[in-house]
Structures are given as structure tokens and as C-alpha cells.
Amino acid sequence: MKIRIGTRGSKLAMAQAQLVCETLKQRFPEHTYEIVVISTKGDRVQNVALREMGDKGIFVKEIEEELLRGEIQLGVHSMKDMPSECADGLIFTKSWKREDPRDVLILKEAGSLDELREGAVIGTGSMRRECQLKRIRPDIRIAGIRGNVDTRLRKMEEQKLDGIVLAAAGLKRLKMEHIITEYLEPEQMVSACAQGALALEIREDSRALHEMLDSFADEESQVCVEAERAFLRAVGGGCHVPAGANSRRCGSLLELTAVFGTEDGSRLERITLKGTEAKELGEKAAEILKGRVANKRN
Predict the structure, then answer these.
(1) Where in 20-158 does DSSP place strands (E)?
(2) Alpha carbons 183 and 147: distance in angstroms, whole number
(3) Of 133, 182, 219, 298, which is most buried, counting CB atoms within 10 Å of its CB?
(4) Residue 42 has pLDDT above 70, yes or no
(5) For the segment 101-124, what is each residue's pLDDT rounded down to a tens digit?
(6) Is 165 in contact with 133 (CB distance < 8 Å)?
(7) Would you say residue 37 has pLDDT above 90?
(8) Which listed residue (81, 100, 103, 162) is catalytic?
(9) Is 81 in the active site?
(10) Sheet containing 2-7: which strands, arranged edge to edge?
(11) Model confidence over 182-209: pLDDT tens digits?
(12) pLDDT score of 52
């Protein structure tokens, strides 16, 4: 069987596709593999904020179209970039072991968020990150930036920013964790839903490939991603609202911490719940937070 793996063309996307490709090759050397780079709308349009571009599908639509046409057999994405539902005819396989889900600060001079000068300027294109940073440090100013890791690092220098916020997972997959100044724990910054997890997307009828991919499944990662994605679906989350969730095992229970706010970022609510059923836990957190935000609006 020839397996063509579709991916975006950024360094991180390519690193993730290479990881999947090499992992499959080692266990299933009888098949042949090829990585296919596909340009998406989110990659082509860099001068517009994500919140102004609509659904998260801007990073995946073209790859999904290639899957449905049979031009590729597997799409490799970051799960945090995925819409709350797959396109008709496509499915996600089970989650592989998740990379570090935390957000991190890359700071030019300061050694931590607390040490930043008053009125410091931090770059991020995420409403979720912006709202949470300003809860901790209301004096901080935000510069809206987008792009891959190299682009954001360059913009930090060009725009003379004091720092930027990135995902730990991406930096670790790029072997760049040495540039991290500070890890932001969930108590400070709730990450994007399913941050650090890969999304492996295939056609519903790709049974043999489905079995191959699921042979690498990690049960704890799968449960955590299920809870966080259930929360995202229930709040109707996209790039235009601040929403995030992070879950972890606590003995026999699953603990989920989530944030949700208004589209203009003026309000942000937070909750931590524990439960045994991932989907129910995510949906319950969404119901409570939506109620809180709606009540404060009135």
C-alpha cells in the first residue's frame, strides 16, 4: 500500500508529518510512504487576524479536500487547529502520545512574566492567550502577530517586542526548547483545546490504515483530548472567542480546567471540574461557563 501523507508546509507541520511517517515506517516497512505539502488558506493569508478569518478550518480545508478525492490517504495536523467536527466522510484516528500541552513565553530580556517591565509588549494572535495574560498583568500591551515559529521570532525582533507566547509542543518538536524563557502552568494560562496532540485524519473507509494508526494510540492522551474537544464543540469555539481547556488524570478521575469568554475579550470565566466520563465532563464545563458569561452580559 502507498500512503501519501498530506501536511502544511511550515517547519513544524513538516516535522510532525516526518514524525508520523518515520513511526509508521519502523512498524510497517512493507508499505511505501510519501509526504505531500498542501497550501491552506491560513498559510496564504498572513495579514489578517485569525479572529477575523472565520472558522479554524482555514488551516485544514484543502487537506481534507485532497483526502476526500483520494489524492492523499492521511492528513497530519495539530489537533488544536482543527474545527470541532470533521468534514463528512472523514474521521480522526485515536490520539498518539501527546506532547507538552502548555503555553510558553519567549522573552527578550526579562526572566519571567513577573519580571517584565510595566507596559511591556507581548506578541500573540490568540484572544485566549491575550485575555489570560491581561488577567495576570493588566498593564501588558498586546501586539497581534501571526505566522510560523520563525516568523514570530523575527517579528519579535523587528517590532521590538518584549516577548511572544508560543506552544511548548511545537518548540519541542522543532528541538527549540532551549529558547523557552518560562513555561506557563495551567493555573496561569489554560492552553488551547487538545494543544500538543496530533490530529491524524483519514477517510472513513480506510480500514487498514485506521488499524495501523490506532496501534500507536495512547489511552491517557485520547481521554484528555476527548474531554477538551467535547468542551470545544459544546461552546461552539473557534478563533473568534477566547476558549481553552486542559485536562489531566488525577487517580481514577479526570480533571478538566477550562476558560471561556466574550468575543470582545471583555469577560473571561474559568472553571475546574473532575469526573469519570470525558465527553460529559467537557460538556458540563461548557454549560456552566456559557451560563456564567451569559449572566454577566445581562
Answers:
(1) 32-37, 74-78, 90-92, 103-107, 121-123, 141-143
(2) 21
(3) 133
(4) no
(5) 999 999 999 999 999 999 999 999
(6) yes
(7) yes
(8) 81
(9) yes
(10) 32-37, 2-7, 74-78, 198-203, 90-92
(11) 999 999 999 999 999 999 999 999 999 9
(12) 47
No. of H helices and E strands in the chain?
Answer: 9, 13
Which helix (DSSP H) or strand (DSSP E) does residue 110 occupy? none
Question: First vs last Cα of the chain: how many Å apart?
Answer: 58
Q: 88 is written with which cell numbers?
A: 463528512
Backbone angles phi, psi at 238, to 5 degrees: -150, -160
In 9-162, alpha helices (H): 11-27, 41-44, 61-69, 127-136, 149-158
Q: Residue with C-alpha cell 484528555?
A: 224
Single-letter code of the amino acid located at 187: E
The contacts found for 11-18 with CB under 8 angstroms, 24 or more apart, are: 11/148, 11/149, 11/150, 11/174, 12/78, 12/148, 12/149, 12/170, 12/173, 12/174, 13/76, 13/77, 13/78, 15/173, 15/174, 16/76, 16/78, 16/173, 16/198, 17/76
